[in-house]
Every structure is written in C-alpha cells, then in structure tokens.
Design goal:
The structure is a homodimer of 149-residue chains. Chain A is α+β, with helices and mostly antiparallel strands and 149 residues long. Chain A has helices at 4-11, 18-30, 35-43, 51-63, 107-117, 133-136, and strands at residues 67-70, 78-81, 87-92, 98-102, 120-121, 128-131. In chain A, the strands form 2 sheets. Chain A has a 3-stranded mixed β-sheet with strand order 4-3-6. In chain A, strands 1-2 form a two-stranded antiparallel ribbon. The structure holds a DNA duplex (25 and 25 nucleotides).
DNA sequence: GTATATGCAAAGGGTTTGCACGGTT
DNA sequence: AACCGTGCAAACCCTTTGCATATAC
C-alpha cells in the first residue's frame, strides 16, 4: 500500500515527486519551519531544489491537508505538519520569544465568535501578540527587541 | 494651550512638523488606513510628502501613543487613531471580508492567558482568521478569494 | 505522448535605509 | 548653531510569475 501522503496527493490530482516528499519530510522534521528553513533542510539531501519549488510545494501540501501554516512575527510564515498538536503562538512584542499553548485555551472565545457572529475561527493561523510575564515586570522604556529570533 | 498631540510629541522629545500633523489627521479621518492610503489622503493637502515619511511618522505616532496598528490580511497593516473603540478584526479566509467586533469579546480568553501563562495580550494587534457565516454554508471547493479587497 | 512540475531569473509588493538638504528648536 | 526630520533613490525581504525544460503519468 502506498504511503498516506502519496494517497492524499493523488486523490487531489497531484503527482508524486521527490521534491514533494522532501519538503513534507522537512516540515515534519523541523516541526516549525519557514520556507527558507525548509529549503535549507531539503538541500541537505538535494542541493538542486529551488526556493520557488518550496513555495509551490507548500501550497500544494496545504491544499491537500498535509501541512498548515501560521504567522508568527511580521516575517515569513511557519509551517507545521498536520499531525502536530494544534497550538496557538503567543509572541512577546518586547523580547520576541514565542510561547506555544494548546489551541483549546481559546475555546470559549471561538465558541462565542461562532455563537454571536457565526464566525468559524481558525485560531492557530495567526499569533497572539502581547507581553510575556518576564517583560511585563521590566521598566517601561527599556529597549525592546532583545532577541530577534 | 497647545493641542494634545503636540504635547504628546514634545513630551517624548519629538518635534512638531506639518507632516506629523497631516499624517495624524489622515489616520483620524480614515479610521482604517494602510500607509499607502494614508499617504494618498495626506497628498490631497501636501503633494510633496513621501511614503517613507509616512512610515517614519506612523512609527513616531505609535511610539507616543497617538495611533495603533493592526494586521488584517497578509498585506499592509492598518492604522487607527487611539481614540477609536478597540476592536478585533475577523477576516474571512474565503471572501476576504473583515468584520469588526468589540475587543472585550475576547475577555475570557485574554484573562486565561494572563492567569495560566502570565501573558498580557494585545488582542487587537492581529486579526482572527476563519470563515464567515456566509462562506461556511458554501460548497467546499468553490474558488476562494471572491473579493480581493 | 501529454500534462504537470521544476529551475531559473525577473518582477512584484511592502518596508527600511543612507545620504544630503531643509526646517525646528 | 545644532540637531532632527524629510525627500529621494536604492536596497531589502519575502513571495509570485513567465517561460523553457524535464518528469510523472
């Protein structure tokens, strides 16, 4: 029997290619990865793979439900394999640290958005910004952006 | 007595310039505006103003607490005057429509982030993505992105 | 054999930066 | 007079696209 991911691609009319396999494996291995990071990982095996292929491949893999992405900072999005536990990223606007918390922390929130506005929330898609516990206790006008990653 | 906004700038060691006044007025007038839109509005009065000045000015105005910004789509951020009612943007990933809901809809959510993780949430900074009530009732594989604005 | 995927290079949107000039204090 | 703010142009990051070639089916 073919691997599940091959099945998924074929079902949606896509072809099986080495690039698609490698990108998917890189996302699974990295657990959190930007397109650039995924490319770097893929190129450890296949140096010839191109960034635009990574972009196109991630789009396809997302289409068929094998990966998802989330926006962390203002920069490149982060991709996850779908079998990762669904989580929300809390981004500290001062120190830039990212905290992952279970998606169902937002359950009452998403429930009321559904009830009051009929809106079906994809809570993990976009990060929640704010200040982490550490940075809240710091003096006000201390330089932000301690860690740019 | 000087206007409040002039006070604000001076307090933080910034100078008063026509550009800063015009950008602030444009943000207040537009209520929701991207840097480009703000520039267009400013240029109705002063054609010579430059985009990079708008960016730099918005940063200053945000620094001193006269404006805030929120990320709606993947594109340019939207600026608001601080006296606007604080609201969350709900973005439909299919039709791209944006729904504004009161920020305190998220009160139980932000409260539990504070209690459980010590995180002080800035809920209005980033939009919540998902599907609006209309698009949920549509068939699955209908082309998305009906309205690119 | 035919349609789809890929690599490459170029273009695109949004934003930031270096620099010289001009305006505010 | 000193410094800050501005305009301009170039550079920047991330992403998308056109096209010819290669590959999966």
């Amino acid at each position: 029997m073919a691997e599940a991911w091959e099945q998924r691609l074929r079902e949606h009319g896509f072809r099986i290619t080495p690039q698609r396999q490698l990108v998917l494996e890189a996302v699974e291995y990295l657990r959190h990865g930007t397109p650039e990071e995924i490319l770097a990982e893929v190129q450890r095996t296949a140096t010839g793979v191109n960034l635009s292929t990574v972009y196109r491949t991630l789009e396809v893999l997302e289409d068929v439900g094998l990966v998802t992405h989330a926006h962390i900072g203002h920069g490149a999005p982060t991709y996850h394999a779908v079998d990762e536990e669904l989580h929300i990223h809390l981004v500290c606007d001062r120190c830039r640290k990212v905290l992952s918390v279970p998606a169902d922390t937002a359950l009452t929130f998403t429930t009321s958005l559904a009830k009051d506005f009929g809106f079906a929330t994809d809570i993990a898609h976009v990060s929640v910004h704010g200040l982490c516990s550490n940075c809240q206790s710091l003096p006000r006008d201390v330089p932000a952006e301690i860690d740019h990653h």
